[in-house]
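User: I want to check something. If I give you two sequences, will you return the structure for each one separately, not as a complex?

Assistant: Yes, each is folded on its own. Here is the first sequence with its structure:
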Amino acid sequence: MKNLKLLLIAMYLILLCSTVYAKSDGKVLIYYFKNLTGSSEYDDLIYAVPLCIYNQLQATNSEKNFSVVDELAYETYLENRELDLWDNEYMRNNARKKKIGRILFGFFYDEGDHIRVRGKIYYTESGLILDIPEDNEEFAPLFQGVERVTISEVRSCGALEGVKTYKIPAKLIDDKETSQSKQVFSLSGSAVFPVGEWRELYTVGFYGNFSYIIFPKRNRVRLGFGPELGVIFMGRGDDEFISSSLFTIPLGASIQYVLVGKNMTDRLIASFSAGLAVSILQVNDTREESFDFYTKGGLSYIIRLAKRNELSLSAGLLSVSFSETPLNTVYGDIGFRWFIF
């Protein structure tokens, strides 16, 4: 009896494997391939490899039942390593949204100027995951095509157009992510232009700013806040030498809101600051000191330079409430942002 049970189990497994390996007409999602090189230098291939596989299918006009995952969850993964893109349940829930029958995924490692690709197939209905052998007629030639070209050529796959992508629902990404903070340091400088009565004294000055902003839940909420420190200097050197310097220290309110940007990537930011300004104004031999409130509002356009470094282009208005005549200025600065998590 015991042998009979073992025989029945073996027959069932053989039947199951033969069924799932049979040619399927269902939808196939070409998913991300995991980086096992040990170096983040190759992280871009996580998304480039599936694009290369899909492009091979396009070249043979056989991509009808195939789609390739888009880059949204991949970008989130780069920012949040706690997000496991290859968690079985995560992939399965993802596929069910579009009735995808199979998910093609795997891993790669480097071998000189080339990479080696190993694939797996996930059957979403049964939950069964099988390795794809080298003699598999459906997918093995696609892996071999990626392996034949150089790493730089694999990277170029990301630039091709006409790719039919599958966008992972944002809710799935949010549910999988932990609530994550983003801490941003920025340093900028620019010309500053007084307006109104102050323009009669100074046509242009210098404005510098340093800030530390924390977004407590950047992957869920776009609002951040933190302290900033600034300095304004304006001078005139004709018959009457007039110099003015203004140091600003916010008293707890420098607020930024990401108008354009998804997940942990910022593009357009609106900011508002308020604080106390220490001012020194000297006209000839007369020196005046004062403590005044200041407000500042502006927009910043963010350009990513590297993984954790960005260029910031900002413009806005800054006002200091001098008791006699308020100082109103227009600024347009350029600076750098760098951040930690």
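And separately, the second sequence with its own structure:
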Amino acid sequence: MGETERPRADDGLRVTVGSKARRYLIPLLIGAATVAGFVIVARRMAGGAVSEATSPDWLLLAGAFGVAAAVQPLRAFAWSQTLQRPVGFRAVYAASAVGSFLDTVLPGRLGEASKVAVLRVASGPRWPGVARAGGSLLAAHLMEALAFCLVGATAGIFLPFPTWARAAVVGALTLAASGIAAAGIIHRHFNRWLPRWADKFLAAAAVPRPTLLRTIAILTATWAVRWIGVLLTLNAVGVHASLGAALLYMVLTGLANTAPLLPGNAGVYQGAAVAALAMVGEAGSKAVAASLVAPVLASVATAAAALLGIALFGRRFAELPRAALSRARA
């Protein structure tokens, strides 16, 4: 009989090293993305297409970074409203921030699935279950889309939106409102024929009217904060944009972001940004500068927010990125 192969002494060490590498991958990736983002912004501002633009105003750019970072707590606060469970804001913030960061480095919004996985680890014994976490996240996204469409529809009254943009805003508004209404109708009238997990999912997505109105108000304020960030970013790179131009830019690039084909929606965002600025008389190197700097700055701010969310858990910080990474790969 053949001799049984004995485990080598270094096998355990290899497993430990491999698990540690995976555990620290997301924090290292976030830190690298934050540093690389600042480097890219500096290089873009110094050379290439942006070299022909006005010298950047770093004070305005720093203000835009702060505004972009402030968006994450607002989005987390909106999700905490739809959860309707005392999960703890720290856990919701960490899950929302880490998932949003992964959305910027993965195609197809794969980071959204990781939000539920991170929340499961971060909430601990307060974990509300997959169905409630997923349903509440869907409700938050539908209401974020609804708030965006309300902002876009209001802006369309005063700004020269192209016909396709008006049609897209109306269509998205209809879909978001229909999704929220459908969740409530199916849960109330067809719950007896649904699997238990599906009924719980729809019950979480069908939030009560007071919660719905409160969440939409929070998310509308979130878009207002983003509007300020866009205004600061455009003026920082030499585009002397008014409030109306910044709003037009935000709405058109927001519509483009509904098709996340590549990480950070690269390419599609730049096309929408240049087109939006051309409509307000800004073209050439300054428009290209804005289209390059704005998404990079947003990614850096998201990475910083994710790093903060992980750091809030102290010694347990390694568990969150491990959960996010496993879900993102699934």
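Because they were folded independently, the notes below concern the second chain alone. Confidence is low (pLDDT under 50) at residues 1-5, 9-18. Residues 21-329 form one domain.
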